[in-house]
Amino acid sequence: QKEVEQNSGPLSVPEGAIASLNCTYSDRGSQSFFWYRQYSGKSPELIMFIYSNGDKEDGRFTAQLNKASQYVSLLIRDSQPSDSATYLCAAGGRRALTFGSGTRLQVQP
Amino acid sequence: EPEVTQTPSHQVTQMGQEVILRCVPISNHLYFYWYRQILGQKVEFLVSFYNNEISEKSEIFDDQFSVERPDGSNFTLKIRSTKLEDSAMYFCASGETLAGDSYEQYFGPGTRLTVT
Fold first, then answer.
1. Measured between alpha carbons, how far is residue A5 from residues A98, B39, B41, B42, B96 in Å?
2. Average pLDDT value for chain A
């Protein structure tokens, strides 16, 4: 059974702070890892992807992958109230993704 | 920027009826997917489709479900005899170009299916 685990939160951070979101996955065969942002009632929006161990930065977002520990994280720098959403971690390959239940992030103005 | 589109945005049907959910994937993408999300729950994989055949399917995707690419642009999910538990948001996604160097999946806005 392929599982992706995330802390459901809510994670509350003040505006301008760094938000740190984490997930672990069970399937060692997973090749690709994604972070999606989902606002209430909306579809998942892809914000970051990472395929290799290490860090990947894109603007205010940094994704980190450690395949040995089966661990993926997302850092959001200079958090804004508009970042308040549920962040979904997903793992898999080109055929299918397994999603975690999401971490709800609240950025306090 | 190209995006995945889905119709209808909301479908209400009676238990036992057939429904067809429609999607137009991003035009140069090769893989197409259906996922569903029951209210308050995880996004769940249903099926992936590549080169005009099913690539992978989950346990949820039983004989009541089928997918089709009836022409060069549309991708459909059919539920033959809907049950109350089929009520969910259904997301279509697409991904991967001929370059084959990425696995990103881009989601459409979803169809909310309500079975009464």
1. 10, 19, 13, 11, 26
2. 96
Say yes or no to pLDDT of B48 above 80.
yes
Interface of A with B in 55-74 (CB under 8 A): none
Neighboring chain B residues of A42 at a CB cutoff of 8 Å: 109-110
Q: Does the pLDDT of residue B46 top 90, yes or no?
A: yes
> Cis bond leading into B8, ω under 30°?
yes
How far away is chain A from the Cα of B54, in angstroms, using its nearest Cα?
10
Contacts of B42 in chain A (CB under 8 A): 99-102
The answer to whether the beta carbons of residues A22 and A65 sit under 8 Å apart is no
